[in-house]
Design a protein that fits this description.
single chain, mainly alpha, 2 helices, 0% strand
């Protein structure tokens, strides 16, 4: 059974903000981070990546186009 192209495209567009958020979270850890390692979010690459992915997930609805009539 093969999925329709529209389902795959829709799933990719919905996961893109999460992936970009995760990439941004890791980039923040890598380039800015926390020198001492005691910062709760930026002191660990896993937490900063997960935090960035969560931000991408929660900001995703604000990126959608408004629908007319609702």
């Amino acid at each position: 059974m093969e999925l329709p192209k529209s389902v795959i495209t829709s799933w990719l567009w919905r996961s893109l903000p999460v992936l970009l958020g995760a990439l941004g979270g890791y980039a923040y850890y890598y380039f800015i981070g926390c020198v001492s390692g005691t910062c709760p979010i930026t002191g660990n690459p896993w937490t900063s990546t997960l935090y960035g992915a969560a931000m991408g997930f929660f900001l995703m609805p604000s990126l959608r186009k408004p629908t007319q009539g609702s």
